[in-house]
Amino acid sequence: MKSKQISSKIWISPSKDMMLGKGRVELLEHIHATGSISQAAKIMKMSYKAAWDSIKALNTHELIVEKQTGGKHGGGSKLTPKGLEYIEVYKELETIQDYFFGALGGRIDSLKNLKTLTSKLTLRTSARNQLHTKISKIDRKDHSIMLTLTMENTQDIKVSITPKSLEEMKLKEHMSLIVLLKASSITLHEKCPPDAPHNWLHGTVKSLDIGGDYAEAMIELDGGGKIIASLTTIECESVNIGMSIWAHFKPSSAIVAI
Predict the structure, then answer these.
(1) Where in the chain is the domain with CATH 1.10.10.10?
(2) Which of 20, 163, 171, 183 is deepest in the core (most CB within 10 A)?
(3) pLDDT class of 73 with cuts at 50, 70, 90
(4) Is the pTM of this model over 0.70?
(5) How does pLDDT run across 83-117, given as a tens digit for each residue?
(6) pLDDT higher than threshold 50 for residue 202
(7) Contact, 251 vs 198, CB < 8 A?
(8) What's residue 12's pLDDT?
């Protein structure tokens, strides 16, 4: 069967009267860069009236572009914080779309292949911890790979994977990765050993959810983020809300996903 080309367009519609697509986003970007609706219209090779009508339609829902008084040219137009936010949202949606079509390879030959792909992209996991990181270093050691990953709170962690995983996932420095960790893979400690090798994260116990023979402790990490550890009810006796604590996991306990 002949391969089918696929494509799509993104529209943001906060209300039935407001439609924000690629053209209007580009118009907003040019207004932000030039401080002028007329200059933005010239860059996009459209009439001032067409540009103004678009802005008027957007402003009907909420203020996106407002007049700017004073300045070098005696005034102009500027985007409101909401207008800038819409640009960021649209760009993020474009990134997600590019990721999806990149995974699809730009083509799809059968409904079965499409369902297989979408099931992977919408995969859910039982791992209680999903840490968003970026690869800062890749160390190749014998028959294993050690990744140094920087979390959103700027703290580094180590995760070990196989050379085959590195090859198949096409991992490179600065790529974004999600680290999946079972709550049972995390142990809690009052002190961090002086010679601790890797993955000792400091934080504060924010909550304890006790039920049956097991419990979950939510640790708010220094600098932001959280991590969840599972405990037995006996272990809970030495853990209190508000206490300073160290959460530890082995580099081999984590799974990475892109």
Answers:
(1) 12-104
(2) 20
(3) very low
(4) no
(5) 898 888 888 888 777 766 665 654 556 656 666 65
(6) yes
(7) yes
(8) 80
The pLDDT value given to residue 142: 73
- Of residues 152, 208, 11, 5, the one with CA closest to residue 94: 11
Q: Which residues contact 153 (CB under 8 A, 6 or more apart)?
A: 221, 222, 223, 224, 225
Question: With helix as H, strand as E and coil as C, how does the chain read?
Answer: CCCEECCCCCCEEEECCEEECHHHHHHHHHHHHHCCHHHHHHHCCCCHHHHHHHHHHHHHHCCCEEEECCCCCCCEEEECHHHHHHHHHHHHHHHHHHHHHHHHCCEECCHHHHHHHHHHHCCCCCCCEEEEEEEEEEEEECCEEEEEEEECCCCEEEEEECHHHHHHHCCCCCCEEEEEECHHHCEEECCCCCCCCCCEEEEEEEEEEEECCEEEEEEEECCCCEEEEEEECCHHHHCCCCCEEEEECCHHHCEEEC
Q: Does 129-257 carry CATH code 2.60.120.560?
A: no
Write the CATH number of the domain with boundaries 12-104: 1.10.10.10
Closest alpha carbon to 187 in 200, 196, 198 = 200
Place of tokens 């709550």: 183
pLDDT tens sequence across 19-47: 888 999 999 999 999 999 999 999 999 99
Q: What is the maximal distance between C-alpha atoms in the chain? A: 73
